[in-house]
Write the structure tokens for this entry.
Amino acid sequence: MIGKAIDIARSGERFLVACHRRPDADSLGSALGLIKTLRAIGKEATLFMPESIPDSLEFLMQGEQGIAEVPEGTRFDATWIMDIAAKALIPPNFPPPDVAGPLIVIDHHHAHDDIGDIVVRDTNAAATGEVVVRLIEELGLDSIPEGAATPIYAAIVSDTGGFRYATTRPATLRLGARLLEEGVDPWHVAYQLFERWETARLRLLSSIIATLDIAFDGRVAIMRVTREMLAICGADDDMVEGMVNYARRVEGVEVGGLLWEWEVRDASGTRIETKISLRSSGDFDVSKVAGALQGGGHRAAAATQLDISIDEADTRLRAELAKYFGSDSPGSDA
């Protein structure tokens, strides 16, 4: 459907560009890269940003101002939503179809919901940022638009774990080199995304690792983070990002999981839901587990969010894992 997306980009004049709920570097970087691209071909493009972004991603904004809600009377020729695999990840306050226009999904996830009027999804891409570069090329632009190189590079380097994950292909590295030639500072991006940790985040890491449970005869590691842990450490939710990778690092572990108490505020008040982040260190496809729990993602990285307690989420997660690893043996901690 890339042809339909290109036709709309060329024929339309006013576009809204959105990230998925709780934007990460790929979603935000892709959105910003697309906004710069649309403006480069003379279009009006607005970033829809109803949620705050982590401090580690602020450097990508480069003065860009998003809107938390669409002003009354505004209409768009189309709305682009970046790096989204599940309907549950549509951001809050999302405009209705008569305001948003056709919904164009730009994505690279293997496991996904049926979402979007037009879907441009390349499951071979290491990141949605790669798909944005393809759009740039299809639009006939000779170079990466001004201001787009750094957010697109951040999208790719984040989703490949610094070009370490199995999704990294020769074409991914060549694209990385091309973006460096466009002026990207690789250390600046790496420092912001991976290296800049506050004291509270280190304390939180220590607390999370203390919850480590080795299950299914050493093949699964599960950790958790509660609201109480965050409060004691003086940490916030943004600091939890990436913590699940420590579960995957345990020798012999095939699947690492993190259960995360998540505070949801809506018109009815405040409640606690549970996010589940999953990572695979081998051939196991964690997107199958996330999909069974109403989520989605990739073979090596997937997630979901459930409106249940953290203990209930733990039980449901282990029940799904048991379908692949057999029954969990009590006392399998190592």
In short: The chain has twelve helices and eleven strands. Residues 25-40 form the longest helix (16 residues). Residues 21 and 89 are 5 Å apart (CA to CA).
